[in-house]
Amino acid sequence: MISAVVLAAGQSIRMGQPKMLLPWGQMTVIEKVISTLLEAGIDDLHVVTGGNHEDVESTLTRYQVNLTYNPDYIDGEMLSSVKIGLRSIPGESDAALIVLGDQPQIEIQVVELITERYRSTLDKIIVPSFQMHRGHPWLIDKELWKDIFELEPPSTLRDYLVVNQEMISYIDVNTPSIIQDLDTPQDYQVQRP
Fold it and tell me: What per-residue confidence (pLDDT) applies to 29?
């Protein structure tokens, strides 16, 4: 089984308002991420919340997702949310997608490419790439989760990928959606549907 850790714990400081709850088509940003993952066949979803967690969690009540609160979200460290998310995954899971909650542009086909690559090769780390730029979501095999748990700030997930470069299996994709997220009002205005 492949699970997904959806990172939705940020404070949205640069956006100036809770970006997970911004409208995206007929739903919110976080709902679009969740619905895309479900449509791509990922049904074990673990959403890590923090800033505005009550509103984000109430928005997701109609979805079959596991909600986990990161009490350290104010520090703004993505690493702590990834650790919490991975720890919430059941034992039968083989790998986890690391998904940005502020990436509503995520495409079903990209998620399917990553999961199909994993099922056919069992590569330990699978990362999508657009024009030589790493993006999200990326997948990490359960055997390597312990390495994530041992990371401590100031180490980051980016550092982890650099150190483990030789284990990464890249998938070249033809879409910039893997490197787009929503940090500022300008990002939102340019990218919203």
Answer: 96
